[in-house]
Design brief:
This protein has eight helices and no strands. By secondary structure, it is mainly alpha-helical. This is DUF4290 domain-containing protein.
């Protein structure tokens, strides 16, 4: 079946031609009470088309807005909500300014630079040392994702010094903390279920 391209363009085609025809019929009803009942019926049918959205806040309000749009704001009924104004349909949203903050190394990203700045402000101690180790490990991960190759600790050390303006250093103790964190995060987990099964098997032997 071919679509009739000569028909009038629908304001909201997602509801289909049948719903639009119902709205057009409602516009021809002279009796106001009957016109109101027809509008309520159309809203119920529209809502049934999207049952997964029934619990979404303002869903019913949006349906009445859509009814007004499909009627070209000419349907004289009592709307249960304050419907959208016709002159608001074509208003353009305010442009969002593009962030102008420069990033020294894009593969590290802005978030890492923020972390480094926070680490600089930390008082000296174990917490700061662990934060620096976390940052260095994250830098290695980001670098390898970007470069698809191994990375030398000296490169990470140089980049950390540059990004922190010389206020953070990748010392030997930091390198040890980095290794400890990797070992802790990637240590294989013990399968407790297998252990329980092994214990049962050992008891049966005795």
């Amino acid at each position: 079946m071919q679509y009739n391209t000569q028909q009038k363009r629908m304001p909201l085609p997602e509801y289909g031609r049948s719903i639009q025809n119902m709205v057009n019929h409602a516009l021809t009803i002279e009796d106001r009470a009957e016109r109101q009942r027809c509008a309520n019926t159309i809203i119920n049918i529209m809502g049934n088309m999207f049952p997964h959205l029934r619990d979404v806040p303002d869903f019913k309000h949006k349906l009445w807005d859509h009814l007004a749009i499909m009627a070209n704001f000419q349907l004289d009924i009592d709307y249960p909500y304050e419907i959208i104004r016709k002159d608001n349909l074509n208003t353009k949203p305010e442009s969002i300014p593009y962030p102008s903050t420069k990033i020294r190394y894009r593969h590290y990203g802005r978030t890492l630079e923020v972390l480094i700045k926070k680490a600089i402000e930390f008082p000296e101690g174990d917490e700061k040392q662990n934060l620096i180790a976390l940052i260095c490990n994250h830098m290695k991960k980001d670098y390898m994702a970007w470069n698809k190759d191994t990375v030398d600790d000296r490169k990470i050390s140089d980049d950390l010094t540059e990004l922190s303006d010389g206020k953070l250093q990748m010392t030997d103790s930091i390198v040890r903390l980095m290794a400890e964190r990797i070992d802790l995060n990637y240590r294989p987990k013990v399968n407790n279920q297998n252990n329980r099964n092994n214990n049962r098997n050992n008891k049966r032997k005795y």
